[in-house]
Every structure is written in C-alpha cells, then in structure tokens.
Amino acid sequence: MLRIAIQKSGRLSEESLKLIKECGISFINSSLKLKTESTNFPLEILYLRDDDIPGYVADGVADIGIVGENVLVEEGMQQLAVEQLGFSKCRLSLAVPKADSYTNLSDLEGKNIATSYPKLLQAYLDENGVQAHIHTISGSVEIAPSIGLADAICDIVSSGSTLISNGLKEVERVFKSQAVLIANQSLSEEKHAILDKLLFRIHAVQRAQRAKYILLNAPNDKVDTIIKLLPGIKSPTILPLAEEGWSSLHSVVNEDDFWEIIEKLKDAGAEGILVVPIEKMIK
Ligand code: PRT
Ligand code: ZN
User: Fold this and answer.
1) pTM score, two decimals?
2) Can you give the pLDDT at residue 231?
3) Is 7 in the pocket of ligand 1 (CB under 6 A)?
4) Most buried one in 15, 153, 254, 266, CB count within 10 A?
5) Residue 274 — very low, low, confident or very high, per pLDDT cuts 50/70/90?
6) Distance (Å, whole) CA 78 – CA 199
7) Which residue's CA lies nearest to atom 18 of ligand 1?
8) What are the structural domains of the chain?
9) How far is the CA of 70 from the centre of ligand 1 (A)?
C-alpha cells in the first residue's frame, strides 16, 4: 500500500484528484474525510494542507505527495521532487504600486518587500546582488503596499488580475512553478514498485493529453506528401477507401503543433480531417 498526500481543498485539489482518477484509480471521494483508500489500486489518499505535504512526505507519514514547486522549494525540500505534473502553473513575482517608476531590480535596494516566500525571495535578491528588507506575512500580501507595510510585494501570480485590482504592476519574475510529484527518499521495495506502476500510468495520461488522433482522406497520389507532414508514433496507418483512388490516413499529432499541420495538410490535398482526443497512450 502506497500513501499519497494531496491538498485537502485549494488550487491543487481538483487537478490532483483528476490525475489519480485518469490513472484508472477508483476511490470514494469525500471532502469530509481525512483519508480514503482506493478500491482497485494499492493507494491510500491523505487530504492535507499543501504546506504540510513536503514535511509529511520527508518524514514518511505519507510516501508520496502532490504540491506546488513554490512550496517545495521554499521549504528547502526540492530533493523530494520526482517529476513535474504540468498543472497549477503560476509564478512568484515582484510587484510595485502601478504609479511607481521602475527600471530594474536595483530600484528595490533598501526597500521593504512583503512576501510569504522569504527564502525564494532572499535567494533571488542574493543572486542579483540586491539588498532589501523582507517582511514575511502569511496572507493578503497584495494589500501590503496600500496599508503602508511595504514598498513592494513578492507573491504568486497566475492571471495577474489580483495585482491589477490592488493597483500593482508585476516587475520581475522570481520563480516559475507548477504542481510536482514528490516522494520519500527511502521507500521500501514494495512501495517503490507501486510508485513505478503509478508513474507508468501518469506518463500514459500525460502523453495522451498532449496528443490528438487525426484521421483524414486523401487522393492516392497525395499520400506521400501528406505522410511527410504527419509525425505519427511510428508511421501513419493507410487504409484504402471504398472510393477508387482514395485512402484514409490515421496518425497522432502533438496538440501544440496540430493547427499548423492541419493547414499544411489541407494545402496538400487532405479532406474530411477529424481530430479526436486520446484517453491513454502507452509507448
Ligand atoms: O489551505 P492550504 O494551505 O492547503 O492552501 P493555500 O491557500 O496555501 O494554497 P492555494 O490553494 O491558494 O494554492 C496552492 C498552490 O496552487 C500554490 O502553492 C501554487 O503552487 C498554486 N497556484 C497556482 C496558486 C495560484 N495559481 C494563485 N493564483 N497559488 C496561489 N494563487 C493566489 C496568489 O497567492 C494570489 O493571491 O492567487 C492570487 C493571484 O492569482 P491571479 O490569477 O489573480 O494572478
Ligand atoms: Zn497553504
């Protein structure tokens, strides 16, 4: 049995549970419970506050966990990271009042900066040779300048709307973050084997998220040109159509470049193009 710690309620919760479910792991989810056990995979889920997850994993209370890299690095536990999961993307940024002039980081020399991430901020200031006073506060960092507590803030930003609605502007990006899978560093052989199984499933889900299955029809004399445009897992599948002189081609394309490929495919004579999602993809 492997124990995974995920955030009880917050910005990581929904995507963490979704990933576990997409791995085919079933469980009865109840936000009232502290833990739950899967009915079809040797996994127990612990619901915790995100800040507690690295510590619990390091101590072995949980074997693995999902947490933001910002929290992991701030707590000095980056050695627990197994891999990035691609969701809950955000950045830790410095921001100053909109009306302030700002040219570069040296403008913050000797200033007061409020943050909940003193270690990440200190490391960034040290790296850039700037000295400032860091005020550590645990919440509502964005109001610090307007109440006269600080000249600048260093906080998590995703859309940027919190900064705007508090009359602030983002001036430097300190750290880029996303959700990361972490693991205790001395897992038993049995637990390691379960983790490997879970990682195998996570990779299949992640590959499928980026990939699309594409089907199209093309005149036989255009097939060679079209094949060159389709990267495919190995090479595209080509099936003859009932209509003489035509074929159907099937392949896999990456979501990031499929719009560009689709334009080229149409130009090359492809017709009836279908793009469908892939649920799992095993290499
Ligand atoms: O209760 P618990 O301690 O478990 O949760 P929490 O309140 O400490 O964390 P939570 O749920 O807010 O965030 C969990 C993790 O989500 C963070 O550690 C980040 O890794 C990640 N994440 C992604 C974010 C955001 N996006 C985000 N936008 N964490 C916080 N924010 C906040 C930010 O602090 C600011 O107040 O959202 C505001 C900015 O958002 P925008 O969209 O207006 O820029
Ligand atoms: Zn927290």
Assistant:
1) 0.90
2) 73
3) yes
4) 153
5) very high
6) 19
7) 68
8) 2-88+179-208 (3.40.190.10), 90-176 (3.40.190.10), 211-277 (3.30.70.120)
9) 10
On the 0-12 / 13-18 / 19+ scale of CB atoms within 10 A, 28 is: exposed
Q: Which residues contact 149 (CB under 8 A, 6 or more apart)?
A: 112, 114, 135, 137
Give the pLDDT band (50/70/90) at residue 233: low
Q: Is 209 exposed, middle or buried (0-12, 13-18, 19+ CB in 10 A)?
A: middle
Q: Which atom of ligand 1 is nearest to the CA of 51?
A: 3
Task: Say if residues 281 and 211 touch (Cβ distance below 8 Å).
Answer: yes
163: number of Cβ within 10 Å: 19
| Whole-number Cα distances in Å, 129 to 2, 110, 125, 134, 171 | 44, 12, 6, 15, 17
- State how far the Cα of 276 lies from the Cα of 122, in Å rounded to an integer: 47
Mean pLDDT, the chain, as a whole number?
Answer: 95
CB of 115 sitting under 6 A from ligand 1: no
* φ/ψ (deg, to 5) at 268: -85, 0
Residue 65: strand pairing partners: 5, 182
Distance CA 57, CA 187 (A): 10
Q: Residue 141 carries which DSSP code?
A: G
How remote is the CA of residue 74 from the centroid of ligand 2, in Å?
A: 12
Task: Please tell me if the CB atom of residue 158 comes closer than 6 angstroms to any atom of ligand 1.
Answer: yes
Give dist(CA 109, CA 130) in Å, integer. Answer: 6
**Alpha-carbon distance 207 to 226, whole Å?**
23
Residue nearest to atom 42 of ligand 1 (CA): 159
Summarize the confidence of residues 32-50 as an average pLDDT: 94
In this structure, which ligand is nearest to the CA of 9?
Answer: 1
Residue count (the chain): 283
